[in-house]
Amino acid sequence: MGLRILLTNIILTGRSGTELYIRDLAAALLKRGHSPMVYTTHPGPVADEIRAGGIPVVDDLSATEFQPEIIHGHHRYETATALARFPGVPAVFFCHDARSSFDRAPLHPRIRRYAAVDQACLERLLSDGVPEGKTVLILNFVNLERFKPRGPLPARPHRALVFSNNASQATFLPPIEEACRQAGIQVEVAGMLSGNLLKQPEDLLPLYDVVFAKARAAMEAMAVGAAVILCDNDGLGPMVTSADFSRLRLYNFGYRLLREPCTAAGVRQHLESYDAGDAERVRNLVRAEAGLD
Hints:
Blueprint: E1 4-9, H1 17-31, E2 35-40, H2 45-52, E3 57-58, E4 70-74, H3 76-85, E5 91-95, E6 111-116, H4 119-127, E7 135-137, E8 159-163, H5 173-183, E9 186-190, H6 201-204, E10 210-213, H7 215-224, E11 227-232, E12 235-239, H8 245-249, H9 264-271, H10 276-289
Parallel strand pairs: 1-2, 1-4, 2-3, 4-5, 5-6, 6-7, 8-9, 8-10, 10-11
Antiparallel strand pairs: 11-12
Helix pairs in contact: 1-2, 5-9, 7-10
């Protein structure tokens, strides 16, 4: 017997990490025989995608007749609203961001477990006052059905993609472009600020040998088989290697690993560690350990 599950998320208007997490999770729950519904205060294109998959999305819980058996909460206020609307229903709360006020843990007796997607979020839950015995670490996933393996990488990289909603000429894109120019690598950019927002990145990622990204976007690129250099507004991180994969995944390939300033010299140094064979080993690790199932 499947469960009636209410999932919450603050926004479903763009293509951020939690929005796509909710989309993929809801679809996977439906596929497994459950009955999910999604609540958001800001519906949009991702909400339309979820609805197209046969899953209801609502922005007003007072008007729904859906009676969940469990609440899968993302974001503080949306989770609290669901708990208030459905007295007696137990919940889990997932923290996806160690810095955002929206991810501050709501302390409530009906929240049975507080899950963190990486070590930084786990520390955040504890600092919010969640008892350690109610926390659990559930690392982020990749939808392996969407992001399929590409063919072998070339011996030296020819094409690179900066895959980030924060990448633009006004942020960290110029030093990457300069480093790639020096290395003879063609570079392109995808994400919100660049004006090239990808609805289906799984179709584009296999075209690139190197991808600059962080967090979920980085994992998607790894799952395809690209060599990944961690990078975003917070700074520059390392090339992901098979030797460092487990340690970096513990921090969701995220902001805590972006410790270097993003300079052309720094980017060029990481490009020199490109190893087609090791990128394949990283791909195999993602596909063995980090799938949605």
